[in-house]
């Protein structure tokens, strides 16, 4: 029999003064109550209760065991209450991993989270390499592409597109790009995590797919390094819209071939568990979804 259930049954017998009263309290048969107490006594090899036809009473050993049992059951109830509270109100430490170039997008959400929930701590780590969420103890990661691990839960936050761009200086030195296939002759900087490798994919004005095989002297897994290369006039870049938008509006970068829309991507929140999602993770993801909706034009300048 389940030891914890037997412990609770024994305690109810003591508190109610009999097997029948305990059975009514626990909504089980008197025989089952008796069996649970007997199982405890057999396991311990001692008598916990003195039984008569009229009542039951604790033995000396039973009294010591009951005192400890009630403390154990109280501690367990308190643990349940703590778990329930943690599930309903964001508290504890939320460990997040994001790509470095996503910091400007995520930082306002983290600040709002900390301001709204004073019992919550946030441990925010950045890096370009994928991390093992379970092995490294992260609650959630934000990624620009879906993870290869199918056991992880993926929540889409927003759609986004790359922007094809370069600096004015690059155009002055290498000439304007007039057609998509001309990119093959240019120095194109590529992000290592671009899902199609060195084949840049687009849709034309009619919605037909188009692509070009590019080459170049710079490959990186850093969005910021890609942006720096573009600003310095070192290469043509296909970079996330939220990285390029400010520089495009300021005139530091020029959008190329606007008639071609890069393929749509998804910004994702990735976490290990679907069931019993903690309040801290659930609240953070919900706030990200709301923030993503507000920032959609920045995330996806083609929307």
UniProtKB/TrEMBL annotation:
GO terms for molecular function: DNA-binding transcription factor activity; sequence-specific DNA binding. Pfam families: HTH_1, LysR_substrate. One of its GO terms (biological process) is DNA-templated transcription. Keywords: DNA-binding, Transcription, Transcription regulation. InterPro entries: LysR-type_TF_proteobact-type, LysR_HTH_N, LysR_subst-bd, WH-like_DNA-bd_sf, WH_DNA-bd_sf. Residues 1-59 form the HTH lysR-type domain. Belongs to the LysR transcriptional regulatory family. NodD regulates the expression of the nodABCFE genes which encode other nodulation proteins. NodD is also a negative regulator of its own expression. Binds flavonoids as inducers. PANTHER family: HTH-TYPE TRANSCRIPTIONAL ACTIVATOR TTDR-RELATED (PTHR30537:SF5), HTH-TYPE TRANSCRIPTIONAL REGULATOR (PTHR30537). This is LysR family transcriptional regulator.
């Amino acid at each position: 029999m389940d030891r914890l259930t037997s412990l609770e049954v024994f305690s109810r017998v003591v508190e109610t003064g009999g097997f029948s009263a305990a059975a009514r309290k626990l909504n089980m048969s008197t025989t089952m109550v008796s069996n649970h107490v007997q199982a405890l006594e057999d396991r311990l090899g001692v008598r916990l209760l003195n039984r008569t036809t009229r009542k039951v009473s604790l033995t000396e050993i039973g009294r010591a065991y009951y005192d400890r049992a009630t403390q154990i059951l109280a501690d367990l109830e308190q643990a349940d209450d703590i778990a329930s509270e943690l599930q309903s109100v964001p508290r504890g430490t939320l460990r997040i991993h994001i790509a470095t170039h996503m910091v400007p997008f995520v930082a306002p959400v983290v600040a709002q989270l900390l301001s709204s929930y004073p019992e919550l701590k946030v441990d925010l780590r950045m890096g370009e390499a994928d991390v093992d969420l379970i092995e490294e103890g992260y609650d959630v990661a934000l990624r620009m592409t879906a993870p290869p691990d199918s056991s992880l839960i993926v929540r889409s936050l927003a759609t986004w597109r790359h922007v094809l761009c370069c600096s004015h200086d690059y155009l002055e030195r290498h000439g304007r790009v007039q057609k998509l296939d001309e990119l093959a002759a240019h120095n194109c900087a590529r992000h290592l995590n671009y899902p199609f490798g060195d084949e840049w994919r687009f849709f034309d004005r009619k919605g037909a797919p188009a692509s070009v095989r590019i080459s170049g002297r710079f490959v990186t897994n850093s969005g910021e390094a890609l942006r720096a290369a573009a600003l310095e006039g070192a290469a043509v870049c296909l970079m996330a819209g939220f990285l390029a938008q400010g520089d495009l509006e300021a005139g530091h970068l020029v959008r190329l071939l606007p008639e071609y829309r890069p393929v749509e991507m998804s910004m994702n929140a990735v976490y290990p568990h679907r069931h019993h999602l903690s309040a801290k993770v659930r609240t953070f993801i919900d706030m990200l979804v709301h923030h993503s909706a507000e920032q959609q034009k920045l995330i996806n300048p083609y929307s």
